């Protein structure tokens, strides 16, 4: 990752409340093109909320979020523009159960980008090959293992040609033997230069690909460091406590 790359995501003094509950407290973050960031922290610390604000699945109330020169507002055109640049993969895959794998991958390109079915299918097959499940294209999500479903979810996101990918604990709902196959795909994506923000506690993955680890607690970014520095020698007491619990 080159230091002089443009900044593609910026959070400036971002604050969010759920009712009275102050869930994000003045979060500041700059992500450069091609950068890989791993976000970790205790359950309930605001990790999901923060990354969901970046593509406006959640709305922040104060501060600015800028994605590729676009200031995120409530305007639908603006939200659509940001979502074109930002793909997201969730813990629970969120595939459409009544559509085949191929149809899941073609839906958004056809309806949002108006790409003809034939072209959308060709692109989908290309990405299903990249995640190593082209043979599953005509099956329904329920017929696939969790690891395969998550790889479909990644392929589906890539079909929209995003510049930035958000991952929210993509392996934490998987049986242990399926974690590796999903991480392998993510490592490959990282090596191809994708800008990635990943909420994950997979330390091996973080050490292998992350430029930075961000540790969140109680709605704040408490610590930010290289993976080696953070995992070997966290600076904050909260970071130390967290690591002692996940190790
Ligand atoms: P994390 O992903 O780090 O586990 P979340 O961002 O999901 O944390 O949640 C942060 C806090 O906000 C938690 O205390 C959670 O209970 C609360 N929260 C999350 N979503 C909502 C919601 N829609 N309404 C009210 N509180 C919420
Ligand atoms: Mg979460």
UniProtKB/TrEMBL annotation:
<dbReference type="InterPro" id="IPR050086">
    <property type="entry name" value="MetN_ABC_transporter-like"/>
</dbReference>
<dbReference type="InterPro" id="IPR003439">
    <property type="entry name" value="ABC_transporter-like_ATP-bd"/>
</dbReference>
<comment type="similarity">
    <text>Belongs to the ABC transporter superfamily.</text>
</comment>
<dbReference type="GO" id="GO:0005524">
    <property type="term" value="F:ATP binding"/>
</dbReference>
<keyword id="KW-0547">Nucleotide-binding</keyword>
<feature type="domain" description="ABC transporter">
    <location>
        <begin position="9"/>
        <end position="243"/>
    </location>
</feature>
<keyword id="KW-0813">Transport</keyword>
<dbReference type="InterPro" id="IPR030679">
    <property type="entry name" value="ABC_ATPase_HisP-typ"/>
</dbReference>
<keyword id="KW-0067">ATP-binding</keyword>
<dbReference type="InterPro" id="IPR003593">
    <property type="entry name" value="AAA+_ATPase"/>
</dbReference>
<dbReference type="InterPro" id="IPR027417">
    <property type="entry name" value="P-loop_NTPase"/>
</dbReference>
<protein>
    <submittedName>
        <fullName>Amino acid ABC transporter ATP-binding protein</fullName>
    </submittedName>
</protein>
<dbReference type="Pfam" id="PF00005">
    <property type="entry name" value="ABC_tran"/>
</dbReference>
<dbReference type="InterPro" id="IPR017871">
    <property type="entry name" value="ABC_transporter-like_CS"/>
</dbReference>
């Amino acid at each position: 990752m080159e230091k002089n790359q443009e900044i593609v995501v910026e959070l400036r003094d971002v604050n969010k409340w759920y009712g009275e509950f102050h869930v994000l407290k003045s979060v500041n973050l700059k992500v450069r093109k091609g950068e890989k960031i791993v976000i970790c922290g205790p359950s309930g610390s605001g990790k999901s909320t923060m990354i969901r604000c970046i593509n406006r699945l959640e709305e922040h109330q104060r501060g600015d979020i800028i994605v590729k020169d676009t200031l995120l507002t409530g305007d639908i055109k603006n939200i659509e523009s940001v979502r074109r640049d930002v793909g997201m993969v969730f813990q629970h895959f969120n595939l459409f159960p009544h559509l085949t794998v191929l149809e899941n991958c073609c839906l958004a390109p056809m309806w949002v980008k108006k790409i003809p079915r034939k072209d959308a299918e060709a692109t989908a097959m290309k990405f299903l090959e990249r995640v190593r499940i082209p043979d599953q294209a005509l099956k329904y999500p329920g017929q696939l293992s969790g690891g395969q479903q998550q790889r479909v979810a990644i392929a589906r996101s890539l079909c929209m040609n995003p510049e930035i990918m958000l991952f929210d604990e993509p392996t934490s709902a998987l049986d242990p033997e399926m974690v590796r196959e999903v991480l392998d795909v993510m490592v490959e994506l990282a090596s191809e230069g994708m800008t990635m923000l990943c909420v994950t506690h997979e330390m091996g993955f973080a050490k292998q690909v992350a430029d930075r680890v961000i540790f969140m607690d109680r709605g704040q970014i408490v610590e930010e460091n290289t993976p080696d520095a953070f995992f070997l020698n966290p600076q904050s007491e909260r970071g130390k406590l967290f690591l002692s619990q996940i190790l």
